Amino acid sequence: MTKQKFNIQQEITDQIIAAIESGCAPWRKPWIGGTGGAGLPERHNGEPYRGINVLVLWSIAASKGYTSARWMTFKQAKDLGGAVRKGEKSSQVVYYTTTEIEDDANEGETKVIPFAKSYRVFNADQIDGLPEEFYNKPDPARDLGTERDPELDAFFAATGADIRHSNQPRAFYNIGGDFIHMPEANTFHDSNGYYATLAHELTHWTGADKRLDRFKRHSDRKAYAFEELVAEIGNCLICATLGLTPDFDQSGAYIEGWMKAMKEDNRAIFRAASEAQKALDFVQGLTEASQTVAAE
User: Of 20, 97, 164, 187, which one has the fewest beta carbons inside 10 Å?
Assistant: First the structure.
C-alpha cells in the first residue's frame, strides 16, 4: 500500500476549518467577556506569530476557550518549569525554510528550494507551573447597558428561529440542535453589533436541510469557508434591510481573507452572494407571512 504524502498546507487548512466549525471566528467579536479578543498569538519568548499561524492559533484558541496568548513546544514548557497536563492535545503550526538541490538544467550548480515544515505547540492554558505572566484571566462579562429593540426582536422572532441566550461568550448556530446561541445583549458594545451578529447566525440557520438545504449542496472541503462568506454577506443584506449599519470594513476584510484561501475559484464570491440573497428572501418570506397571520 502506498503511503499518502503528508500535505502541510492541507493539514493547516483542515485545522482552521475544524476550529471555525466549532464556533464564531474570534476576529469577529463585538461583545465582551471570555477571551480577550484577537490579540496576536505569541511564542514562548513573546515573539508574535505571523501569517497563517495567526489564523490557526486564533481559531484554536477561540474554539478551546484559551485566554493566554503564549504557545510553546513540550520541551520549551519543560525548560520554563511547566508541565503539559495529561491528555492535552497539541496544535500544529508551520514554518518555511529552504534547502539546496542540484540544478539539472545547469550542471555543477545548485538552486534554493523553499518548503514548509510543521511542529506541535501547546497553549499556556494547557500547561501547569509556568510563570504567572504566561496566563491571562478571562475578562468578566460586564453589563454595558445595551438594550434590545422590540421591533427588531419581533422581526427575528417572526422567522421562527430558536434563539437562545446565556452568559457563554460565544455566538453560533448549532446544526445538530438547530438553534442559534447568542451572548446576552447587554454584553455587546452597542445594539447594532448584537443584531448584526444575530443576522450572521440567522443566515447560517437558513442553510439547514429543512430550509434552503445549503449545507448538503456545498459539502466539499471548502464548505465551511464558503458558508462563512454567505453568512457575512447575508449579515450585510439583512442589516441593510432593517436599517442597521452593516460592518462593511470587518466583513470586507473577512471575505477578502477567505477569498485568498479560495483564489482558485474566482466564482466563489458570486455564488456566495447568490446564496446570501436567497437567505434574505427566505427570511423576508417568513416574516411577511407572520405579519399576514397576525393581521388576520
Answer: 97
